[in-house]
Description:
The complex is a heterotrimer.
Chain A: H1 3-9, E1 13-14, H2 15-35, H3 39-64, H4 67-98
Helix pairs in contact in A: 2-3, 3-4
Chain B: H1 2-22, H2 26-46, H3 50-75, H4 84-109, E1 116-117, H5 126-135, H6 138-159
Chain C: H1 3-39, H2 55-65, H3 76-92, H4 121-142, H5 146-177, H6 182-187, H7 205-218, H8 230-233, H9 243-267, H10 286-314, H11 320-348
Helix pairs in contact in C: 1-2, 1-9, 1-10, 2-9, 3-4, 3-9, 4-5, 5-7, 5-11, 7-9, 7-11, 9-10
Amino acid sequence: MNSEFVQMLQQDVPLSWYLLLSAVLFSLGIVGFLIKRNLITVFMSIELMLNGVNLSFVTFAHQWHAVKGQIFVFFVMMVAAAEAAVGLAIIIAVFRARATLAVDRIDLMKL
Amino acid sequence: MHLILFIVFAGFCVAGAVNLLIQTHPINSALSLIVVMTSLAVLYLLLGAEFLAVAQVIVYAGAIMVLFTFVVMLLNAGREERTLGSRAAMVVGFPAVVALLAVAATVILHTQGLGTAAMHDGITSTQELSTVLFTKLLLPFEVTSVLILIAILGAVALARPGDGERTPSE
Amino acid sequence: MTILPFFLWSLLKVIVVTVVMLMSVAYTVLLERKLVGRIQNRWGPSRVGPFGLLQPLVDGAKLFLKEDIVPTAVYKPLYLISPVIALGCALISIAVVPFGSPTVTGPGGFHFFEISDVNIGLLVILGITSIGVYGIALSGWSSNNKYSLLGSLRSSAQLISYELALGLSLVGVVLRAGSLNLREIVESQGAHGIFTWNLFGGFQFVAFFIYLMAAYAETNRSPFDLPEAESELTAGYHTEYSSMKFAMFFMAEYGNMITVGCVATLLFLGGWTSPFGNLIPLPQNILVLALLPIFWFVLKVFSFLFLYVWVRGTLPRFRYDQLMNFGWCYLMPLAILNIVATSLWLAYK
Lengths: 111, 170, 349
C-alpha cells in the first residue's frame, strides 16, 4: 500500500466539508420543493431541507463542544415529526376532496 | 478512516437527494429519502453525536418516513407528469438555487476558524445531553411534548372521514 | 491492537455469530414444531435424523430448490428488496448484543464475546427494529395483491404501535442501571445472582410482562399474529413470495424472536451472569470462565423462546381492533406508570 495514500486517508475531515454538504442538501431540498409536481414529494423535499439544517447544527455543536446544538437538533426532529403528522393528514384530506395529488390541479380554492 | 467514511456516506446523501428529485413515482422518492436519513445518521456518529444518530434512525427514518410510505401506499396516486408548471419551475428554479448554493459555498469556504473532525474526538454522551435537556432546557422540552399532543389531535381530527364519507381505501 | 489484526478478528467474530444465528433460526423452527406438537399431543417432526434433528436442513434444501415464482404485475425493485430488508434487520441487531463475560479479553482489551460495544446499544436495537417495519410494509404494497396490502398495513400498524410500549418498558431498566450500554446493564445485575436480576430484585416484573407482550406483537407471533392468519388474509404480506424470498421472511421472523429473547435476557434476566451469583466457587480455568457465561446466556434465551412457543400453542389470537386497543389504551399507560413508579422509588432510595 502506498504510504502517501494511507497518510491522506488518515487525515481529519475539515468541518467546512460538512457545512458544504449541509448547504448542498438544503439547496437540493429547495430544488425539489420548486420542481416536483406531487404533493407528497414536495413535502419530502421540506424534510430534506430540515435534515440539511440539522447537519449544520451538529457540525457547529462539534466545533464549539456545545451540547445545546445537539439538543436543538432534537427539538427540530420533534417539530418535524409533529409537522409531518399534521401535514400528511392535510394531504389525505385534500386527496379526499380533489381525488388528485398533482400540485398543478390543487392550486385553486375553487374545485 | 474518517475521510473515507465521510466521503462514502456524503456520497450516499447526495445520491439519495438527487434520486429523490429524479424519480417520478413518490415511493421511490420516499425510499431515497430514507437512504439520505440513515447516511445522515452515520455522519452524526462521525461528529460524535451518538444519541442524535440513533434518534435520527428511530424518529426520522423509522417513524416519520413510515408515515410518508403509508400515505403513498394508501393514496396510490401514481407517477407524476411533466406539465407547463414544472418546466417553468425548472427554468427559473435551477439557476436560482445554483446561485444560492454558490453564495453559501463561498461564505463557508472563506470562513476562518473552523476546525476539523477526527475519529478520536470525544463522543457526546447521552448523560451530558440529558443533563442539559432536563435542567436548563426543561421548558422547551415540556412545550414540545404539548406540541406533539396537539399534532396528534390535529392529525386525527383532519384525517377522519366526515359524516357520510368513505375513506379512499374502501 | 493495530488495525489489521483487529479487523480480521472482528471479521471472524462476525462470521461465527452470523453462522450461529442462522443455525439457531433454523433450529428454533424445529423447536417450535416439536413443542407445538407435544402441546397438541403428537410427536412433531421425528423422522428425519434422530429425534427429527436434521429436519431444518431438509427444510432449507426444500425451500432453496422450490421454483421461484415472481408474479408479472409486482413492482419489481421493492418486491425483491423487502425480504432483504426484513432478514438484514433481524440479523444486524445481534451485533450489539454481548453474550459472554467481559472478564476474558484478548490483547489490548479486545472483547471476544460481543461484536461491538456501543454506548447506546439498547437504542441501536430499537432503531433497527423500527427499520424492520419497512420490510413488511413494502412487501405488501409491492405484491399488487389486496390481501397482501391489507396484511402488511395491519402488521406495520401493529408493529409501530407496540414499538412504543416496547421502548417505554425498557426505560425502567435503564433508570436502574444508569446506562444504555448493554454490558453495563448486565453488570449492574450480577451482584447476587438471581435476586438482583432486574426481573426479581429490580422489581421490574411489570416491565417484563409489558415487554413480553410488546415483543409478541413486534414479532407478529401468537396471540398477536392476525396479519398472518390464514383464515383471514391468506398468508398476509408474504402471500406472493415463494422459495428463497419466503424463506427469508420466515427466517426474519424467527431471527426477530431470537433478538427479542437476547434483549430480554440482557435486560431482565441478568444476561450472562449465573443465577447462583458468587455462591458456587468456580475453577479459575480460563476455559470455564469463558464458556460458562455463554452457557447461562444460551439457557436463558432458550427458556424465553420456550415461553414464546408455549404461548403460541396455548392462546387464541386477538382480533385486530382488540389488539390495537390493548396496545394503545392499556400497555402504553401501564408502561408510563412503570417509569413513574421506578423513578419515584429510585428517588426515594
